[in-house]
Amino acid sequence: MIDCSASDAVADRYAGWLAAGIHVITPNKHALAGPWARREAITAAQRAGGTRLRHEATVGAGLPVIQTLRDLLDTGDELIAVEGILSGTLAWLFNRYDGSQPFSALVREARALGYTEPDPREDLSGMDVARKLVILAREAGIALSLEDVRVEGLVPPALQGMDREAFLAALDQLDAPMAQRLQQARAANKVLRYVARLGHDGGASVSLLPLPADHAFAHLRLTDNIVQFTTRRYRDNPLIVQGPGAGPEVTAAGVFSDLLRLAASLGARL
Amino acid sequence: MIDCSASDAVADRYAGWLAAGIHVITPNKHALAGPWARREAITAAQRAGGTRLRHEATVGAGLPVIQTLRDLLDTGDELIAVEGILSGTLAWLFNRYDGSQPFSALVREARALGYTEPDPREDLSGMDVARKLVILAREAGIALSLEDVRVEGLVPPALQGMDREAFLAALDQLDAPMAQRLQQARAANKVLRYVARLGHDGGASVSLLPLPADHAFAHLRLTDNIVQFTTRRYRDNPLIVQGPGAGPEVTAAGVFSDLLRLAASLGARL
After folding, report:
1. In the prediction, which pLDDT does B31 show?
2. Which secondary-structure segment (H or E) carries A241?
């Protein structure tokens, strides 16, 4: 079964399918980052059914993120930390945001380019990034749930409840606080980036951080994602995967490579 | 069979083993970058024997380089170019070389730290990098051989024939020409990096290049390798894998992940 929906209702069927001998492949983040009890049921069903759940495209689309983490752990490495920029939308916004135009103008431009969801709050809330961090943590065997992630959303409380059109009309309320953040960062010779972090202790956060200008995350191209694995083997210099992490074509490629790997594990000759 | 030698003689046995039903895993660059006729015999033997030859650790040790290229191609992507810094030794030398000390002093320091081969000419010749480029090209179905790669070695002809001790004593003959290269690069606001390049036309080169200071290759950490795949899907922004690309532990991890993947393809439950 290949679930290309973003539906929680479909994800509720996974355990049943897996227990019945049906393998599942999906780019559905809600399925993997949903309630921990469902995740446990899925794991038990995989064992019972001798089946696999593959979900490379849930993080970074076609980038080899989940598989790289799997390979590190399967070969006996130990995860110390994962850090990354996991939203192409937020990457683009903060790569572009240099004070020459207000933050709200960039949000409007990103929306016009189709880089944000129709309601940009879905990107600015940080929840999509938090979901990806939960997926990485669980892949590493950490029982993390969305409630456990410290999420710094970029939408002020006053703008959260209103309907979409009202929010878009009120967008310039983002500008003054963001300009202040930028000024503070610049005064310390830093740049702003929206970063996801998972420590080996399971501590997880998603927040806007000032980073030194020579940090690996400061030199991304436009909407690139980046994921940095620090492990026992890659302790001094982390292992880094970087590139475009969204879009229909690369997402389809992630799903397809899962399918080929599943087929290979069932004896297919590729 | 896991061949952890660097021997050509062992590689000559691969085709026989593969035809006889024995899978082969190796980090042996000589085996994969050797004569094209041997490579063709290996491919035919794999078909005849229904066997696999895996060699992730031949490029970048444990970094997911070969597998990433395989996944791109297997899912229908087309390679436009591969570029990279494929030698941790040369990465370290040019990350450090800023004119504050002569190039020969850095070569001596790298040798003392165990970063170079006992005879640093093996690193400085560029042949090790050229071998890795041949391996990547062949993985992408291009019939490239070592003779086809334009290799800019860093050892002047006068220093090539002598024995090791004489070479080490004459090391400072590298300094003046290298200082001139650095000066030229700096005058153009560039940095020097030793880069491997493969074009979609099969054109392949390994050379010392002046690169803009904001190039992805200009910000590597110490001995990091980096590989950048430009493909039809990753055309505007390439897919990048980066990290330490040498050392016993990460090389063993590359071999081990090949073994696990082979086992999975034979039906093992991981």
Report:
1. 92
2. strand A239-244
